[in-house]
Amino acid sequence: MHPRAKSVAGAFTTVGAGLVGAALGGLIVGAACLLIAALIVLLFGWERARTRLRLPGGELPVVPDAHRDELRALASAYSTTVAYQRQARGKQDGRHEASFWAHFPDAGKALADADAALLPLETAREAMLAWLDEADPDRGRLLIRHVEQRRPLRWSVDGGFLFLDGGWGIAEITDSTDRADLERPYEELLAAAEKTAQAEALHDAVAAWSGADRAAQEALEDVLALHVHRGKCALC
Length: 236
What we know:
By secondary structure, the chain is mainly α. The protein is built from 8 helices and 3 strands; from the N terminus they run ααααααβββαα. The protein has a domain at 1-44. The chain has helices at 3-44, 46-53, 65-83, 94-103, 105-135, 144-149, 179-193, 197-225; strands at 155-158, 161-164, 168-172. The chain has a 3-stranded antiparallel sheet with strand order 1-2-3, covered by helices on one side. The longest helix is centred in the first third of the chain and has 42 residues, at 3-44. Residues 1-15 and 17-22 have low confidence and may be disordered.
């Protein structure tokens, strides 16, 4: 074959291989993008995935501005309620609450999960309080937050008084007062409480609640991040 013909044939072969490679590469990239999008939907739910990927809401109608503002106000109210460890559902006007759940089922599920995590937390806290009351009726209840949050006692002196955590006046002290004698019963009680089965159950309940709280707050943040709400409910 003539050398120039070989060059032309080689060029066509190279270009053809390049086109095939590009097509295959595009298919692979496209498949990878679809897989990533599917994983995001599975992990976050459709409503949150749509917000994060900035996808349009499909053919659903746009929610009127006034109702959009109501839904945003509800999301903000739910966020505060959950942060204070209160039941979210049943605290708002029934029609508006049903509307919120209809528009944002992912956020509704996260709120329901947070509500479900509250009862075990409250039950575990009451059990720990009962143990503290029995162990030391005078001092026990002062330590419930320390047990729950696994934090040490914080002591301070102000105006001749010994304070626990800056708020609880424990005793009047002078230069001759042995602070260690005053602090020791609280420190020993806390050490004993942290070794109980009640404390372990409380820590487990706190961990479960914290996860549910975090998920609910993230879902509500996604609702508040939406500038255009789509969907249909009885109030639209």
